[in-house]
Amino acid sequence: MNGSTARADLRRQLARGCVLAPGIYNAMFARLVEEVGFRCAYMTGFGTAARYGVADVGLITQSEMVVNLRAICSATKLPVIADADTGYGNALNVTRTVRSWERAGAAALHIEDQVFPKKCGFMRGKQVIPLDEAVAKLRAALDARSDGLVVIARTDALAVNGWDDVIARTRAFVDAGADLVFVDGIRTRDDLATYANELVKAGLPCVYNGAFDPTEVERLGFKVQILAGLALAAVHNATTAAMDALRDTGSVDAVLADYGAIR
Predict the structure, then answer these.
(1) Domain ranges in the chain?
(2) How many H-runs (helices) and E-runs (strands) does the chain carry?
(3) DSSP notation for 118-169
């Protein structure tokens, strides 16, 4: 699916209900998610960093991210929502990022308001840029896009400044023209309930990143749920178990009995 078709497909899905997007970190898993029957996929920055063997602390460059994104979009017909971190600099860098993500085939991207170098949304010690700077970067993204790209404005302010700042930021992002807003760092059911009560019920189109039951997330009114680390965790755990079995038994038989060949 080319980029414009994927973007139109994603917008149709958003109009119908909550979009569930499993996280993927390479092209092989993009195909797997499609073959299983999902309608959308999410290219995780955390997973892309892991693909290169580094932590998600701003070490992966814009060019490394877009190489992975291009391979993923070439491997699947699904619309791909893609992490674009902080946009990799100021408003000018954001412009280049948006155009690069579009050329690679992304249906949507999210830009966050962290100080660069950023950290994974669930790590301690995050910092966020001033709201006016975040809005300026968002407007640069909106001005740079073409052909229906869905622009998601992410805030990491919850762990830094609390809900009052989150509410102010997300409202400002929607007022500036963001298609969706995304509060990262939702850890508890109480956090999720506050997110729904303060933002979703106020009419803001919201993205949830986490593993609470998708049926519940849809019932609460979220527009998108991403499961950023699910596939990566499954692969990590299964591979660790397989290597442990190989080390302990000295035979591949035990590994094959449990995991077999790729179907």
Answers:
(1) 3-228, 231-263
(2) 12, 8
(3) ---TTSSS--B--HHHHHHHHHHHHHH--TT-EEEEEE--HHHH-HHHHHHH
- Is residue 73 flagged as an active site residue? no
Nearest to 110 by CA among 71, 69, 72: 69
Which residue in 18, 40, 73, 120 is the catalytic one? 120
* Residue recorded with tokens 């909106």: 142
CATH class assigned to 3-228? alpha beta
Which of 120, 100, 121, 98 has the alpha carbon at shortest distance from 109? 98
In this prediction the pTM is 0.93
Tens of pLDDT, residue by residue over 84-129, are 999 999 999 999 999 999 999 999 999 999 998 776 766 677 899 9
CA 137: distance to chain centroid? 18
- The CA distance from 220 to 197, in Å, is 9
Copy the structure tokens of residue 4.
């414009």
pLDDT of residue 261: 58
